[in-house]
Amino acid sequence: MFRTKVAVLMTAAALLTGCGASDKPTAAAPATVTTGGSLKGDFGPPQGEPVHAVLTSPPEVPPATGRHAPAKVIVELEVVEVDKQIAEGVTYTFWTFGGTVPGSFIRVRQGDTVEFHLKNHPGSKMPHNIDLHGVTGPGGGAASSFTAPGHQSKFTFKALNQGLYVYHCATAPVGMHVANGMYGLILIEPPEGMPAVDKEFYVMQGDFYTVGKYREKGHQAFDMQKAIDENATYVLFNGAESALTGPHALKATTGQHIRMYVGNGGPNLVSSFHLIGEIFDKVQYEGGTHFQENVQTTLIPAGGAATVEFHTEVPGNYVLVDHSIFRAFNKGAVAILEVSGEARADIYSGKQGDEVYLSDKTSNTAAVETAALASASGTLTKEQQVKAGEVLFKGTCSACHQDTGAGIPNVFPPLAKSDYLLADKKRAIGIALNGLSGPVTVNGSTFNSVMPPMSQLNDDEIANILTFALNSWGNDGGVVTAKEVTQVRSSTKRAEGAAH
Amino acid sequence: MNRRATLFNRAGLPVLLALMSLPLTATERSASLYQMHEKLLDQDGRAIDLDVYRGKKVLVTMFYGSCPATCPLIIDTLRAIEKKVDGPQRQDLRVLLVSLDSERDTPAALRQLADSRRIETTRWTLAHADANAVRRIAAALSIQYKKLPDGQFSHSTIISALDADGKIVVQSAELGHADPEVLKAISAK
Amino acid sequence: MIRACILMALTLLPFSAPGARAVGLEVPIAGGKFESVLPPSPKEKAADVPPFRLDVALVSNADFARFVRKHPDWRRDQVAGLFADEGYLRQWSSPTEPGSGIEKQPVTQVSWFAASAYCEARGARLPRWHEWELAAAASTRVPDARNDPEWRQQILDWYATSARGVLPAAGASPANYFGVRDLHGVVWEWVEDAGSMLVSDDSREQGDPNRNRFCGSGAIDLEQKENYAMLMRIAMLSSMKASYSSNSMGFRCASDAKAPR
Hints:
Shape of chain A: elongated
Helix content of chain C: 10-25%
Number of strands of chain A: 25
Oligomer: heterotrimer
CATH class of chain C: Alpha Beta
Distance between the termini of chain A: 88 Å
Radius of gyration of chain C: 18 Å
Number of strands of chain C: 8
CATH topology of chain C: paralog of FGE (formylglycine-generating enzyme)
Structural class of chain A: alpha+beta
Distance between the termini of chain C: 23 Å
Largest interface: A-C, 38 and 36 residues
């Protein structure tokens, strides 16, 4: 009965938004389905007996409320300041909601009336309050929940909007309270509830600022200047480097539909949330109602959240990271999801082979080096020149003239048995240095292309290449010396773009 | 914004469903405002104690005479509450206004204020207290105040409803109309 | 100013040894114009602090026990609920005895009413916020160290530790420029005008005073927003009602400069 009401409301909303200003229906405009937000979120007074909300510590998520009507929900959350490990051998005084970073997960349904009790443990040094982003009302509850140590406050709000919301302490200085771990998530379920999945997890990223360096051992204090400079020492999931790794890794099996409620408490950094090896089939970006599909990395703003879903197919360890990647590998923004189950080689095979790979350009530069040394010592032989020239030809000339020296008909002239090449050595050197454009006839065929000047080659290299060309593919031999090239270089006009 | 309920909860005191027939426990007795024996002077210069209206239902708050805007509103609000209380119960209702301004709100100044605002002082009292007494009374009523360099005061406004024993039953920050919670507290038998 | 300094130096001589303290010992502080985190009004950023005297050390459990034995109205089993909540002196082993081991520690779990009564019984009063702030602005070497980031970080370091550590003896910390000890790193302290911390409960409302809530100039905007250590003291004081007590809130007494001792 209630679901019908919602369906009717949603359809009405769809129709209303579809109408717009013009009476003529526009064929191209699709009806936009909206939930109506807070305007449509008041389902009336609470019904039935008051319910005590089940709160969970991360990474657990409370079960679905299963409610179909608005209820009065009593939430009791305690603030306690605790000394805990932030990294191996490093401790920090965290200020927490419920003893954990992030704080307890709160789950209610849209339309619920929430009676919120905030207690501040008598052992706390500081006063605290709470701002829940899902609250409609000044300060999100902050002004009504300012609580001295050893006392408790109570305020009531109606959850008018569905969605996944951050809550955090808002006592001055706010940045410091947040940086010390005072944040968590509250899920306000849509009226029809979240669709069933196999597993739900609660993960929240935060940045931390300590006086000491990353992993500097001992008890570390909060560094206000680093926080102002947004120079994080640690960027962590769930408040500690090993919070979700090793024995604390998240666990699932293959063939499961997983949902993660992912928050970002900040205080400063935006998260580029990514799960290595998986793709998010569905992302309710920013914790809102609509979703994107097939997403690799999603942005989670500081003070924001996102709901991601994916299916597990292949067993192995999947790594949650902030893909601002230095945060993952140098500041601790890493968490593990262990998926166990049967291998699926059809989806992912693992490494299938490992062979030697030589690129085209893998040059046996030894020949070139030998020639260079010999030339320097004055003992260069024709054979050395040809060998060096072969290597150099492959890297430079064969692209057009081909390894066979045959060129490409009607495009690039051949060098093999080329009457043009063999007729005039000096001209050949000049072409290598200055390039050639305009029509030429080679072996009876006309070519009219542009050969660029080989500005990158020095005299030795040109000499060796030409010597190789003269002695290959049936050409009848000859030698070009570096000295000859130098001479041509100095006596010919430099072509445009040619180097000196 | 639900300031009234908030303030009340911050006071940390349970709502007393004023079943006056029940004997008071030690805790309830000791929460009474009348344990403060602060010496006051009323608008006619008479020395009175804070428990001048013991045995009656009392609305108590703090103000100051040269207050430009809010304090006249306080008086109007108290009148609005009074009006909404039925005849016989109204006879039993008392209003105590303690001035924050020890320097300028002398009894004579308070008498002048009462006359100009047509406050009949059979059931209303405007009281003067010295600076230390003002501080303690404000602390007990959770009223924050601060004297400004120009002689004006910044202060929060809280109307407290006391039962016959002087215990704070309800506190309200709502101005301009009768807060239903206050009405409930002082109308209860 | 020089005379005040010499006077201070002479008064301080017996007290300069670390750990030296005596009950109710005060030092004179000259006061003067002082840029406060809580300005007197939105137009006046500097407070005018008349000369005053301030206790060198925090009031200890032993000190407070002597007071409670003389004024049984202030025993935790006899005090009016109006003046103190259930947490009042609950760390003591009995209503009149702190218990061994904590006599020398600063007394905590005392309400504003109780602290005021103690000081009044001595012919003194609680320090006013500006007096406390002025005295606390000093480091061991200079009267106003508030712009020194190292000094600030040292103070913030105290907030970084949990409240479960054992408190040092009252008067144990080094004397600052004025000769006063224990102002930082030990406990929060009550002030006489704790009821004047007219700041909004939601500190993000700065600059947007709700004029109906506070008659007059509205909620006070805090100055020197980078002075977090002081902001947190104000946040703590404004969260406490006069009857509240806390395991991190203690006090010391002060008096006007010319008041007879």
